[in-house]
Each structure stands twice: as structure tokens, then as C-alpha cells.
């Protein structure tokens, strides 16, 4: 039995530049993995099938599951006949803007590469991942990166300065597609990605806090006022900066001083069921 850790990501920045002719959006995102992770267990089975088991009932276990798609793709591409059982121990909230499904798919690619001794490099796995979803290539590597293109062009960058991340997810699931549909690119305020990259390069915590930005945030906040409330509360309890991750609805706060973490965590726990205090994984990449 093989084990792969599948960590969540947060978007320090998320910018949408324009809509492309192929229907995808051209994006620019600074992403980093955090220490809130699904556990993916992989084992070979008789019968040549792909079986998915999930600890969360409403996650699909058929070909709609991104881990299934990853296994199917790698089997077809490399002519593998052996069956596989993939057990997803979900810890990352689902449909939350934390790339849980994409990270499971990436972990499946890494795991099957080992199980079937394919000897593929991270770049090749990321290429395969791009066929499954735009966030999968980043999740193959983990760590901290600038993602461009439709999200699949990955450039490793300096890890963020040390800090705590408080994640809070309101009780609602957001479909990424619906947020993009409501995005009006003529009236958005673009984050300053250059400033973020500079802050990370120089290890400037305050600069990082100043430069967080997500072009999708106002769209999700318009549709779901709960997200605005959560942001306000997190600031009130003492986070240095607060922002929504991905298309939401999860909101994250950055906190430099550990002594402030319990107040924010406990304050949010008073009215929000899913709250996590975690560390960024920084430069620890997932591919060895
Ligand atoms: P992103 O940040 O990439 O938009 P997300 O965190 O918003 O992702 P996911 O948790 O990946 O969203 O789930 C989105 C939908 O994908 C779910 O509603 C679920 O039906 C489906 N899904 C497919 N595979 C998985 C998986 N392995 N884990 C969770 N959800 C999955």
C-alpha cells in the first residue's frame, strides 16, 4: 500500500487577464501549499479496474472523481492493465477553493508513477495533470509557484516568509464555473502580482500582506454575503490580512505572531464549523 500526501493550496494572488479564444481564462496566480492535506492510499488490485473509496460520502467515486481521471489517464497513456484501488481520506473541505480534488489527482499521478515504476519526472506528470484540470500541475509540485497560462504553466518562486494561516469555510459550496460566468473583466481591480513576487523574494511579510488580491473575490462576495462577514470577523479577531482563496468560499487570514492564533481560531469557531490553523509548506516540494 502506497501513501501520498495531497495538500491544499491557497492563492496569495489570483488575477484573470482575459478570456482566450479556446474558452479558458488567461490567469496569473501566486499559489502556495499549506499543511492541511488529504491522505491518498493506493494499492494494486486484481481485475483491471479503478476503484475509488472516499471518506466523505458526497464526493463522487466514479469517473467524475479527479483521482479516477488521473488513474485512467496514466493507465491508458502507458498501457497498464493492472487494477488499482484509491482511498481518499478527505481532510480538505470540498468545493472550497482549496484545490482538494486537483491535489488528490496530483497525488494519484505521483503515487501511480511509483507503483508502476514508470520513472516519469515531475514535468511529465504535470503535463498529464494539465489534461485533468488547470490546478493539477501546480499540485504535482507543491511548494510555492507562479502559475500562468490557464494555470498550468508553473514557475517555482521563493517561499513566503514564515507565518500562520487560518482557514475558515462557511457552510456553502461554490462552483468555480458560476463565479467565472459572473466575472466582468471590464470592471475588476487587478492584484499587483509583481509586488507579491518582490515581497516573497525579499522575505517581506508586511509587503506580502499588502499584496494579496483575488479578482474573483468581489464576485463570490456579491453572491454569498457570508464570505464578507467571515472576512470582517477574521480582521476583527486580529489577522494581519484576509483574503478568499480560489473562487471561494474559503477565506484565509495570515498571522505573523503565534500568540494571536488562538484568539482568531477560537473566535471564528464560535460561528463557523470549519476552521483550521495551519502552516504554509513553503519550499517543501512534493516531488522527490
Ligand atoms: P478548485 O480550488 O480547484 O476550484 P475546489 O477546492 O473548489 O477546487 P474540489 O474540492 O476539488 O473544489 O471539488 C469540486 C467538485 O469536484 C466537488 O463538488 C466534487 O463533486 C468534485 N470532485 C471530483 N473529484 C474530487 C475529489 N477527489 N475530492 C473532492 N471533490 C472532488
UniProtKB/TrEMBL annotation:
Its EC number is 2.7.1.148. Residues 65-143 form the GHMP kinase N-terminal domain. GO terms for molecular function: 4-(cytidine 5'-diphospho)-2-C-methyl-D-erythritol kinase activity. Pathway: Isoprenoid biosynthesis; isopentenyl diphosphate biosynthesis via DXP pathway; isopentenyl diphosphate from 1-deoxy-D-xylulose 5-phosphate: step 3/6. It comes from the Bacteria. Catalyzes the phosphorylation of the position 2 hydroxy group of 4-diphosphocytidyl-2C-methyl-D-erythritol. HAMAP family: IspE. This is 4-diphosphocytidyl-2-C-methyl-D-erythritol kinase. It comes from Sporosarcina siberiensis. The gene is ispE.
